[in-house]
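CHAIN AND CONFORMATION:

***
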Amino acid sequence: RSAIRCGAMIDATGDADAVWMAGEETVSLRDNRRAGWFFMNEQGGMRLHIVGDRFFEPIPPGHPGFAGDDAQSVCAFLRDSRRLIADEVERLTGLPENHGAIPVLLPALPQMRKTRRLRGLHELTVRDGQYEADTIGMTGYYRRPGLVLCIPYGTLIGKTVENLFAAGRCISCEEDAWNITRGIPSCCITGQAAGVA
């Protein structure tokens, strides 16, 4: 065991691990879907295959959602996702044109889209489009042209622990805004602001 003393901490884990361990309030997201990808050597070249349950649609009956902050759920996610990949490989190798094709590369990490996030001083929503005095930056979403979010400083900080900041996909926001703030531009904005703070 060891401990590192610090004057401030930025949680950029993507899973809000540090803010959760510090005792801040968090939201655990248990709606990850089966997901996987693999490369297969077929028809004289490498081809990427992506499989999984579709996002933004109801989870299919009989397929539970998975949490990214619970060991049993992560193991179940990996097991179900690998089964999904195995079924797709079996289907593809059964095609006459893929005779002799073999999978070459499987994902090494769980393909969790959501895990846990901070519930801080301000929970960002898609209605937060107005620039305010504590706005640290603005971001948008390519799938919703014209939607601009102003990210307040309060999304980076919790309610109890001083000098603890969140950055990236684990900042404080509601589900509607999370689909925007999980992207790289928002992660850059919140990371820069947390570092300055």
Summary: The chain has a mean pLDDT of 89. Strands lie at 9-11, 26-28, 35-42, 45-52, 102-105, 116-118, 135-140, 148-152, 164-166.
